[in-house]
Structures are given as structure tokens and as C-alpha cells.
Amino acid sequence: MSKRHLAAAAAAAATLLPATVLTTALTTALTTALTTVLTTVATTLPAHAAPAQELRLRGGLTLYIPIGWKVYGAGTDVVQVVTGTCGKPMGWGSPKCDSFYVLGPERIRQGAEGFSPYTGRSPYYPASDVQPCPFNPKWYELIGPKVTKGLRQVGPGHKAAYRAWQSTCVSSSGSGFKVRKRFTQREWYLPKTRVLVVDQWNTPGLADALRHADWK
């Protein structure tokens, strides 16, 4: 059979196929193509270019954060942004709650063991006693003293004093303490705007969101 006859036979067969078969085949092909395109876009665009919601903060600072992140305490001195699993958001110190915090003037004034203002010379620690570990309330947290310091861009024309404190969660034992988990407490401090961002969960995309913030 010649190629011309084969083409004619194929065309004839197509006209005999039920409309539902053709529709199903077309839908499958289009779905596959769309999925491929969306996957390519999601893996090549930077985090700040993904669909986002605006988080408006003090002094016009505006962050663009993923739509799936939940904001609690908007407009207060303790804004908690839940970015993953969380039993019950309760503000600063919520146990087993994947989140970061944006703190305002009142909290900053109590940021050095509850009595003195936070300055960045010591980690944000708003209590004078031992505090529970954010990952397991049965353990205790120890923040610092080892730290990485620097400046980090927060939108155009603004730089934050950045601190990354090496921290541990420990449990008590007969001979002292046993290290259960290591983590980093990251802090971005904008003294003129009186905003302090604290993250104990190494939140993916947070540094990028701060770098690409706006001031409105």
C-alpha cells in the first residue's frame, strides 16, 4: 500500500472515531502540555516571582510571601507568619510551629532577656529564664554565643543588621545537658523602622522575600 493510500485510510478511520474518543485524546494531550509548561515555569522562576500575597509592615515595608503562608497578628507588635506545619499559632514561642516573626517596638524594647532593648549585640531572647525549644517543648533552647554578622539588603535603599546565632535544643540529664537538635536563629534588624525579623526554622524563601521587598 502506498503512502497516499495509508494517509487516506487514516483520514477515513478518524472520521469513523466517536467524538468522545477524539475529545478525550485532545484533552489528555492539552493537559500533558500544560503540566509540562507549568513545571518548567515553577522550576526556573525565582521564588519572589511566584504567586504571592502582600504583607504590609511598619514604615511601608512590604513583603511578597507565598499565598500558602498564614499571617497572624497583622498590625500588632508580634506578627507571626506560619509557613508550614503548626498545631496552634500563639505568637512568639509557639511550640512546634513552623513560622517566623516580625516584631515591633514594644517587643524590641524587651528583646534582651525581657529587661533591656534588643541591639544585636546579643540574640533576641525576651525572657530571663530558660525557654522551651521551638521544635519540642520538652527540651530547652540555648541561643548563641557563636554568631555570623553582616548587613543584608531589605528592599531598595535599606539594609538590615543581620545576625545568625548558632543554637541548640538540649534536655537535662544526670550529668548536665544533652544536645538534641542544632539550629540557627536568624535576625534582620532595621533600627530606624523599628522592625526585627526573627526566624528559627530556616524558612526557605524568607531571605529572598526580604531582599526583594518594597517600601510603600
List keywords for this structure.
216 residues; alpha+beta; 3-stranded antiparallel sheet; disordered N terminus
Brief sketch in words of this structure:
The protein has 216 residues and is of the alpha+beta class. It contains four helices and ten strands; from the N terminus they run ααβββββαββββαβ.
Description of the structure:
This protein has 216 residues and is α+β, with helices and mostly antiparallel strands. It has 2 domains: 42 residues; 168 residues, no CATH class. 24% of the residues lie in helices and 38% in strands. The strands form 2 sheets. The chain has a 7-stranded antiparallel beta sheet. It has a 3-stranded antiparallel beta sheet with strand order 1-2-10. The termini are far apart.
Report the structural category: alpha+beta
Number of domains: 2
Shape: globular
Helix content: 10-25%
Strand order of the largest sheet: 3-4-5-9-8-7-6
Mean pLDDT: 84
Helix count equals 4
Portion of residues in beta strands equals 35-45%
SSE sequence, one letter per element? HHEEEEEHEEEEHE
Contiguous low-pLDDT stretches (5 residues minimum) are 1-22, 37-47
Radius of gyration based on Cα positions: 26 Å
| Count of beta strands | 10
Question: Secondary-structure map with pairings?
Answer:
Elements: H1 3-16, H2 19-44, E1 52-56, E2 61-66, E3 70-72, E4 78-86, E5 97-103, H3 105-109, E6 140-153, E7 159-173, E8 176-190, E9 195-199, H4 206-211, E10 214-215
